[in-house]
Design brief:
Elements (H helix, E strand, L loop, with lengths): L4 H6 L4 H20 L8 H9 L4 H11 L4 E4 L6 H6 L3 E4 L8 H5 L8 H11 L4 H5 L2 E5 L3 H10 L5 E4 L7 H22 L5 H24 L9 H10 L5 H21 L9 E7 L8 H7 L3 E7 L4 H4 L10 H12 L11 H13 L4 E7 L3 H16 L4 E6 L6 H16 L1
Parallel strand pairs: 1-2, 1-3, 3-4, 5-6, 5-7, 7-8
The site of one iron/sulfur cluster (SF4) has 10 residues, from loops.
């Protein structure tokens, strides 16, 4: 990584502690990613982004701030990036996916909080992530209880705005979410000093839709019998989607897809013929959480899709671009975002339908339902997921894990046995 020490110091980071993270991350990325054979050339860009993760994008965000621009940090798919970009600001993801940040979160949160929340709080309070230092405002949402309470703690340290997400999906809930989006537009306008106009919102809807379309193209390529790219590589791209400049990201994903199109034409696969295909479902896998994909793909199977927020939930359902008023655009955004099936909703049967649909579309031989430890929502929903998949005749394995490596061996054994069972 280039020398960003001065920038990290200026951001008030705990540089000494942060150095420990900088020392282990390249090794982890090397072990998990660079050992793969026959990776697409266009992955070079994404390798670079990870190698420079706490440098190159933070520099761009700070440049933007020097010109008077604002940066908004978000934690969930429901917060509409479109609104932020429409006000000339930048949205960046803030979810923490490393065990490194967990102890910092445990200083203020109950230990039995999910690692995603603990890591996200720890990254801010321990001052060991530049993104958490740069964001001028954090935007939370009322999804799960753990997050709601964590936002109150974060709000004592940084300007925090929380969007009130309904927990059902009736027509009146969708309209309530459209109202909430309009309130968010006002908050963003006040904070940035810039007006969100019909034109600027239409532009940012197109911008984010283009990103979603590129990701959909990438995921479609995984549906081929010859799988042109590993699940691990797609996972890191999905994770980078939360941070990178959307225009550049879209261009790089499309460039990769051009290369993968050629691979499909040439019958190239990164897995041997007959490799079992796995669809993952469950809680998000924030960067740099690559553990499960690595275990699965070194256990003789391939991950062909993720029904997750770091996956298909992120890009399916583009926003309708035809609305021409702020009211109409807010409603179009609400309709789109309420199509995301998070376990915080009740009922949430559409998620279960989706898992079955996606298992068929991606020709999965089996599904692994991944639950981050202490996430009650996804854990409880797992009961219905498992039952529905069994009824549909789709093999399923439920697992619970966290960010540590202490269960890696045990997971390898269970996943290995599952893959073997699929081969019989
Ligand atoms: S799982 Fe739910 S709460 Fe978490 S990021 Fe996804 S939509 Fe948001
Ligand atoms: S994984 Fe579960 S507990 Fe953790 S933030 Fe997401 S919904 Fe909340």
């Amino acid at each position: 990584m280039a020398d960003y020490l001065k920038m990290w110091q200026d951001l008030g980071m705990d540089v000494e502690m942060h150095n420990q993270l900088c020392e282990v991350l390249p090794q982890a990325f090397g072990d998990v990613y660079l050992t793969q054979k026959n990776r697409p050339e266009a992955m070079d860009y994404f390798n670079f982004v990870v190698a420079e993760i706490h440098g190159v994008r933070p520099v761009e965000l700070i440049e933007h701030q020097k010109k008077g621009g604002k940066v908004f940090g978000t934690f969930c798919l429901y917060v509409p990036d479109e609104v932020v970009f429409a006000a000339g600001a930048i949205a960046t993801g803030l979810c923490g996916g490393s065990q490194f940040w967990v102890p910092g979160g445990e200083k203020v949160l109950p230990v039995n909080t999910c690692p995603l929340i603990k890591a996200s709080v720890g990254a801010r309070l321990d001052r060991t992530c530049p993104f958490f230092r740069i964001a001028d405002m954090f935007v939370g949402e009322t999804t799960c209880d753990g997050k709601k309470k964590a936002y109150e703690i974060l709000g004592e340290d940084v300007p925090m705005y929380v969007m009130n997400l309904p927990q059902m999906k009736r027509r009146k809930d969708i309209l309530a979410w459209a109202e909430e989006i309009k309130d968010f537009i006002k908050v963003v306008e006040d904070f940035t000093g810039n007006k969100v106009t019909e034109e600027s919102l239409a532009d940012s809807i197109r911008l984010i839709n283009a990103k979603r379309t590129a990701l959909a193209r990438l995921y479609d390529l995984r549906k081929n019998e010859n799988i042109p790219i590993s699940g691990k590589d797609v996972l890191v791209i999905s994770q980078i989607a939360f941070y990178d400049d959307p225009t550049r990201f879209t261009e790089k994903v499309n460039k990769l897809c051009d290369e993968l199109d050629q691979r499909v034409k040439d019958g190239v696969s990164v897995f041997p013929k007959g490799t079992k295909r796995i669809l993952l479902t469950g809680t998000p896998l924030a960067i740099p959480n690559w553990k499960l994909h690595h275990i699965i793909e070194t256990s003789g199977a391939a991950v062909v899709g993720e029904e997750m927020c770091t996956g298909i939930r992120y890009f399916e359902h583009p926003v309708d671009e035809t609305a021409t008023t702020i009211d109409g655009q807010a409603e179009a955004l609400a309709e789109r975002y309420m199509n995301i099936n998070c376990a915080c909703f009740t009922p949430n049967d559409k998620r279960i339908d989706d898992i079955i649909r996606l298992a068929k579309e991606y020709k999965a031989d089996g599904v692994i339902d991944v639950n981050l430890k202490f996430c009650e929502l996804y854990d409880t929903e797992g009961y219905k997921v498992e039952r529905a998949l069994k009824e549909a005749g789709i093999p399923i394995l439920g697992i619970e894990t966290d960010y540590t490596d202490s269960d890696a061996q045990q997971l390898s054994t269970r996943i290995g046995a599952f893959v073997e069972m699929l081969s019989k």
